[in-house]
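Protein in question quoted in full.
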Amino acid sequence: MSQGSKKAYFELITGSVMFGLLGVFVDYLKAVPTGPMVFYKQLFGLLSLLIFIILTGKLSQIVPRRKKKYILLLGFINTCTIFSYFTCIKYTSFSVAILMLYTAPMYVTLLSPLVLKEKITRKSLVALILSLTGLLFIVDLGNVITGLSLGISMGNGYLIGIAAGILSGFSFGSEIVTIRYIKDDYSSVALLFWYTFIGVILLIPLSCGAPNPVIIDNMPMLIFFGIINTALAAVLYVSGISQIEAQKGSILALLEPVSGIFFDYTIVHTPLLMDTVIGCIFILFGAYIAVMEKSPKIFGKYFKVQV
């Protein structure tokens, strides 16, 4: 293995594991409401990205060119993905949330024929069925039915979290399809910068949703969260996966949910239920089949929504 290959593997593995730490950050910042947390995370991440782009001489890459309206759409979808993902974490657990996020290939399979005019293959259908089966294990239909019978007004947080998780998976899938549509017009760095920038603008109304003392007390960790998760992890991830064989890169990218569940269990001390483990196996296997089927180099490169 060459020195360049080792560097690429290191970048991809490090970026994936850094993304897996998101649940630890959210648990540490649990005093901060979801809206302000996401806003400051994206804001400090955006500033870090801008510094990186300037220092590496990539300013010319982020100049908007064609399909500008799809850049706006991508920013909106990405913001929806992040907000619903964080909401799911708040009401359930990081292990459940990240697995529901990784049902995205299921929605890509459904959306691709409509948007990208791609045919649904047998492998796509297998991936769809596996992801759906895993989702049913994680959702725990008995709990959901109980929540529905009691009514949402009873304050069933689990039900709210599951609904947010389903939305995050669908939104993530929509984001992947959108990126695949405009991938030839913008570099990965440009897409990362613009949908983060648009997200910061959209989240401004939610930035004041917490008392000033809470924000001030947690500001150092919010800054660190933005730098590590929004900027550094994303740059390492994209840099690494773009230099590695498609199939190997796609498989290694699944280190994110695996490491995320590990950190959730060992650091946050969230109980790991058997249904979650079974659901995890189904969803990750379905995701693996999906990334092997759907143009793996492109799909793998953009499979990580920046959250």
In short: The chain has a mean pLDDT of 81. The longest helix spans residues 212-241.
